[in-house]
Design a protein that fits this description.
CATH architecture: 2-Layer Sandwich
Number of strands: 12
Domain GHMP kinase C-terminal: 214-286
Organism: Nocardioides panaciterrulae
CATH topology: Ribosomal Protein S5, domain 2
Strand content: 25-35%
Largest sheet: 8 strands, mixed
Shape: globular
Order of helices and strands: EEEHEHHHEEEHHHEHHEEHEE
Domain GHMP kinase N-terminal: 75-156
Structural class: alpha+beta
Distance between the termini: 6 Å
Number of domains: 1
Radius of gyration: 20 Å
CATH class: Alpha Beta
Number of helices: 10
EC number: 2.7.1.148
Bound molecules: cytidine-5'-monophosphate
Binding site for ATP: 106-116
């Protein structure tokens, strides 16, 4: 039987930041971070099949705004393909692929959806093109693509330092349940960081530590984790989107152990004590907006989960 390469599908998770400690802005405009990432069970899938030319397509879940995803030349998946080919000295013109992304992670939601797609593309194209890039090189290419991309490769629960791109796994003995309250409108990450600078013109270059949170993760105790969740971008995000503060208060009033803005927002995440508890809080938050009648999209997820991984391999028959 002849071997025929029919492509593969790679799944990559959304992230939330359990601790996002931000230091004063660096000369390059980026902020030193001490963050603790967790990968959660909301995924984008990227399918890649052999093709002469490069094609990129998109299908989105109902709650994802398709028009916010740039597909013409400026997609982070295009850049991932360019960097991976360049790393191996390959001409892009000779390396096509038919790539299709199925998005469930909200765009500009503070959950690193674009980063998940980039990580999935690196894993998929590395296999499709038979490159066998070593893990360290893949992480370095990921870091060039964006601060959150290395974590999307790694998954699990990890500390991020530098601008977030230096990732180290940490001990996590919990199985954590989250309610994710999505927002119809995205938020600009640079705008939230700029407002952080306005609020903290004298911020120390050393971001605040996460020792108590790391101990809580090690303990597996949701009440301890709830007490130590921290996000330095939450106050600037509240200033730009005052509705988020109301949202957090509502989730906590409905019994969540703690609510927090995810990354630079606007997704709000709520820690719950069990899957059942999370489903009850989610149901309580799914009430129509009195002004618009629109029902908010509220999902339940658990973490930690794996980083970008192949779910349907290269069929070889
Ligand atoms: O690295 P990434 O492309 O995800 O960053 C997007 C933007 O977020 C940056 O251009 C910068 O404005 C801001 N950012 C930052 N400090 C970080 C990470 C991101 O200021 N550590």
């Amino acid at each position: 039987m002849s071997r025929r390469n029919t492509g593969l599908t790679v799944r990559a998770p959304a992230k939330i930041n359990l601790h996002l400690g931000v230091g004063g802005v660096r000369p390059d405009g980026m902020h030193p971070l001490l963050t603790v990432y967790q990968a959660v069970s909301l995924y984008d899938d990227l399918a890649a099949a052999p093709a002469e030319a490069w094609r990129l397509g998109l299908t989105v879940d109902d709650h994802v705004a398709a028009h916010e995803v740039p597909l013409a030349g400026d997609n982070i998946v295009d850049r991932a393909a360019d960097l991976l080919a360049a790393h191996h000295g390959l001409a892009r013109a000779d390396h096509g692929a038919a790539v299709h992304i199925t998005k469930a992670i909200p765009v500009a939601g503070g959950m690193a959806g674009g980063s998940a797609d980039a990580a999935a593309a690196l894993v998929a194209l590395d296999r499709l093109w038979g490159l066998e890039t070593c893990d360290d090189d893949l992480l370095a290419i990921a870091a060039e693509l964006g601060s959150d991309v290395p974590f999307a490769l790694l998954g699990g629960t990890a500390v991020g330092t530098g601008r977030g791109e230096i990732v180290t796994p940490v001990a996590d003995h919990g199985s954590w349940w989250w309610v994710l309250a999505l927002s119809a409108r995205g938020m600009s990450t640079p705008a939230v960081y700029r407002h952080f600078d306005e609020l903290h013109p004298d911020a120390s270059p050393e971001p605040p530590p996460a020792d108590a949170l790391l101990a809580a993760l090690d303990s597996g105790d949701p009440a301890r984790l709830a007490a130590t969740l921290h996000n330095d971008l939450q106050a600037p995000a509240f200033d730009l989107r005052p509705d988020l503060a109301d949202r957090i208060a509502r989730g906590e009033a409905e019994g969540a152990l703690r609510g927090l803005v995810s990354g630079s927002g606007p997704t709000c995440v709520f820690l719950c004590g069990s899957g059942e508890h999370a489903r009850a809080v989610a149901a309580a938050l799914r009430v129509p907006d009195p002004a618009t009648g629109a029902e908010p999209v509220v999902l339940v997820a658990h973490g930690p989960v794996a980083g970008a991984h192949v779910v349907e391999g290269l069929a070889a028959h």
